[in-house]
Amino acid sequence: MQSTEQTAQSMKDKIYIPGETKAERKARKREEKASSTKHQNANEGCRPLGESITHVSAPTPLPINPPQNISTSNRTPFKNYVVCLKYGNKYSSDYVNRLYNMVKRNLTVDYEFVCFTENPDGVDPDIRIESLPNVPLEGWWYKPMFFNPNLAVKGTILFFDLDVVIFKNIDHLFTHDPNNFYIIRDFNRFVMKGYQKFNSSVFRLTTGQHSEVWTNFIKNSDSITKRYQGDQDWIRVCITQNFNFWPDEWIQSYKWEMRSKPRFDSKPRGQRDFAINGDPTIKDDTSIAVFHGDPNPHNCKDQWVIDNWK
């Protein structure tokens, strides 16, 4: 005995439209059947028959800039973010505020500035604050959290260390080759040509991209933090493909590539400046100077740093 659904379908199959030829009726039935199959596949999350499979190692790419006719409120949650990390007392809130000001002067694309910290005291009230995850980490070991697919910001993320000087337009850090992961080729490139390790002072990703950096880290963070020197070593272990280096000229080591590795004064580590202050050599395409190790920007008396780190 036929079910109600089968009876209804049988009746539907026998529908005749006045004036319709036999060939037209067959074509109509084929279209109805195809439409029904497509609807069923969509409801079940199936792939339509004959559709090719695409293997994706990253989330669906997000637009760098939403269409201009969409209001700002409708752009949330997918948009551009400039983010930084402040933990402990190594860098004061002044570093966050200066980074915020440098970005504001040198970035014209639509973005939101977000500081991830456990202590927002002294941070400019115009800066959005997000809490650090409740895990027993310190310092740069919080950086893997930016690969967390459940991060509080959803969109294109441009991360900056606090000890950088941004002195020219950086729109290209968002607009260049959008939706792909970019990071600095480590500054040991200064002495070792072809060096392929990472420096995580500036990197860009889409929320959830290379999520294994965070998910694998959080499973065994105690062992990982003991085994590796820093976050960028762990990131390099996890990411062996689907990555790109920023062009070397865009982001330079201040003390090595821009100041040609001058001698330090006799102060203790963490307080040292160059023995002789001077002017950097700046390439045409350079817009960011990174201060890894000594000197920190607040200890550097080079007039160029004083003029631009503000």
Question: Descriptors for this entry?
Answer:
10 strands, single chain, alpha/beta, 3-stranded mixed beta sheet, Spore Coat Polysaccharide Biosynthesis Protein SpsA, Chain A, globular
Number of strands: 10
Question: What integer value in Å does the Rg equal?
Answer: 27 Å
CATH topology of the domain at 72-248: Spore Coat Polysaccharide Biosynthesis Protein SpsA, Chain A
Q: Any idea what the CATH superfamily of the domain at 72-248 is called? A: Spore Coat Polysaccharide Biosynthesis Protein SpsA, Chain A
Structure description:
This protein has helices at residues 4-13, 22-44, 72-75, 93-106, 172-175, 212-219, 221-227, 231-238, 254-258, 303-308, and strands at 78-86, 112-117, 128-130, 154-160, 164-166, 182-185, 198-206, 244-245, 251-253, 288-290. With 310 residues, it is α/β, with parallel strands linked by helices. It has 10 helices and 10 strands. α4 links the parallel β1 and β2. It has a domain at 72-248: Alpha-Beta Complex (Spore Coat Polysaccharide Biosynthesis Protein SpsA, Chain A), CATH 3.90.550. Residues 1-18 and 33-76 have low confidence and may be disordered. The protein is 29% helix and 16% strand.
